[in-house]
Amino acid sequence: MKLDRSVRLLQRAERVIPGGVNSPVRSFRAVEDSPPFIARGEGPYLYDVDGNRFIDYVLSWGPLVLGHAHPEVAGALKDAVDRGTSYGAPTELEVKMAEKIVGMVPSVEVIRMVNSGTEATMSALRLARGFTGRDKIIKFDGCYHGHVDSLLVQAGSGATTLGMPDSPGVSKAVAATTITAPFNDIEAVRTIFAEEGEEIAAVILEPVAGNMGVIPPVPGFLEGLREITTAYGALLIFDEVMTGFRVALGGAQELYGVTPDLTCLGKVIGGGLPVGAYGGRRDLMEQVSPSGAVYQAGTLSGNPLAMTAGYVTLDIISREGVFDSIVERATALSEGIKNNLAKLGLDLPMAQVGTMFGFFFAGSPVRNYQEAMGSDTKRFAAYFSEMLKRGIYLAPSQFEAGFMSSAHRVDDVEDTVRANFEALKSIL
Q1: What phi and psi values does residue 264 have, to the nearest 5 degrees?
Q2: What digits encode the pLDDT tens for the residues 136-161?
Q3: CA–CA dist 227, 112 (Å, integer)
Q4: Which of 283, 299, 317 finishes a domain?
Q5: What residues make up the domain containing 160?
Q6: Worst-scoring range by mean pLDDT, 105-119, 168-182, 334-348?
Q7: Number of domains in the chain
Q8: What 8-state DSSP symbol labels residue 288?
Q9: Residue 63 sits in the same domain as residue 111
């Protein structure tokens, strides 16, 4: 596999873009490699500028649940462009999109569209503080909720990948309002609330952690958070930017039967275009301007292109059998990898929730950030390189999730399982 043009493009990019990339994890620095520059995507495949083809399990970091350039999504977008790219005014499509989400996500009675997951979490926290009159929030070590100042405290994803769980530029005053706890440790949360419960506005978390690797909640964890926050009058916020429409059609809250007060969404509801949303109980959302005093605005919020791609995507995955078929493919891939690990005598923890999957180069089960940090990242980097050579495009970090799409075929999964075996065997 040659990456000659990609290497030259990275050198050009580094002269005009920080690190040569517009989002840190794309740099491939965690795997000590140079990223392929992508020319196009089609179905489950990516094609780079050097002519290499990859089976893609990153899928633009999750949103492409239908794969690249799905004909219905692409066709609807082409029609939408002809009608104008942005109006800065209400449209019927925004209403249809809101109705669609309200009908799918258990906690959402009213929803507000924004332009990114970061905007969604930032706005949800502002609403929580405005509603409760309290300032403090609890987040969990390794959960990433975008680059909001108050949430870049023991954050996962790119921050973890680069070994910088906290970011310079976040003021001490802002960080002081954020309390961190270990993921999956309900007793730690009980202790925090016993000491500071009257000052806590909200608890925010990824119900299935996907930014320190795929880590499901242990039994009773989400239920315990619901019980504690209700008892103290704090809000429970599920950041389902990644898990929404990925672990179940109604998100993790449907899968685990725990209903939060507010939900943050993104990725899939844009069908590959920039989008985010936050929603929840009517009495909460009616505090948002212009209904209430909690201010939040955005010129491009609910823009017709993102709404078009998102609505068509949600419509397709809602059709009978479509989502289940994606889960079946993800299950087949996960089972194939588990079988390979067993054949090679490797006891590595593997997780799959819905259409998300991943495994750790770790010697014991991974339930939280600290245990994830015990992973052998050098070994992962070697594995990643071997998979890339075999045409399999994974996230360039031990601490990211893999994703399945409806475009992946049985033979793509079989090719990936075969490549996985060869890659693992080569690094033993």
Answers
A1: -105, 135
A2: 999 999 998 987 767 766 555 444 43
A3: 26
A4: 317
A5: 71-317
A6: 168-182
A7: 2
A8: B
A9: no
